[in-house]
Amino acid sequence: MMKHLLTIDDLSPELVNFLIGQALSLKHRFITNATIPHYPQSSLVNLFYEPSTRTRMSFELAAKRLGMHVLNLHSHHSSAAKGESIHDTIYTIAAMDVNFLVIRHHQNGLPITIKDNLKNLAAHVTTHIINAGDGQNEHPSQALLDLMTITEKKPNINALKIVIIGDLRHSRVANSLQRLFKLLKIDNLVLVAPEAWQPQIVHHGSTTNSLTTGLMRADVVIVLRIQHERFLENEHCDLADYRKYYALTKANIHLAKPNALIMHPGPINRGLEIDDVIADSNQSVILEQVQNGVYMRMAILAFLTDQARN
Ligand code: CP
Fold this sequence. Notes:
The protein has 10 helices and 9 strands. It has helices at about 15-30, 55-65, 85-95, 110-120, 140-155, 170-185, 210-215, 240-245, 275-280, 285-310; strands at about 45-50, 70-75, 100-105, 130-135, 160-165, 190, 205-210, 220-225, 260-265. Helix 1 (about 15-30) crosses helix 5 (about 140-155) and helix 2 crosses helix 10 (about 285-310). It starts with 12 loop residues before the first helix and ends with a helix. The mean pLDDT is about 95. The chain binds phosphoric acid mono(formamide)ester.
């Protein structure tokens, strides 16, 4: 039984397919004004210690569309300002019988530590922990909404060539995507990065520093954000060189299949890793990823709630 969503390793292929099916059904029901599940006694707290637009807002919208109560804790207004540790803040909120704690934090693995300690500290606490991005480790709900978006457009997922381009070394999204594609046996996966941003651990797929090799006949092109805020001293690339050799532009998009999907988890550095004309083209599904994020998060919240009740 899955109680938390901390990593893609918490999921089975059957559960991934179930969540995608539920998310697509919830999307259809919401858009056609059909009834959707309602959980008025459930509550969700967003705890974001790093900036976010998409993830924080879509968890809030997802919970509200399911009739849940939502609170957002702003770290600078919490007792953290009086020296309280993040662990004590989280255990305090969980002790209020909150159903969901959605946590984003710069520390790799923090949600897993919280989950383990919570079990030891307070056996009565039934809070579900959801990892909304932990450092450079994982962002599982982003990977799930990305796969939902691919499946919606190209259901033959195991026949697809997927390329992920850019700052793979610092990308929690790329880590979760690799684990998810491995789980579903989506094996034609190519990871493209300059030497300085090659992943330290490859979970799935082959790596190359050649954009041409990666893009050639690709069905899905996923461009990553350059995460300036995470670079160590020896990890900086010359951005002019990066643009020249790795940016997705009008000059190289023809290498991919003509109907290839263009994806980006956001936020986008326009004119750096991807050009406007590509990000805004009719091949781009970037805003559909954002739209699907709400429905995937609804599916995750509904699944965990139903499972805890049954
Ligand atoms: N993709 C993503 O996590 O975006 P935010 O940082 O805006 O949540």
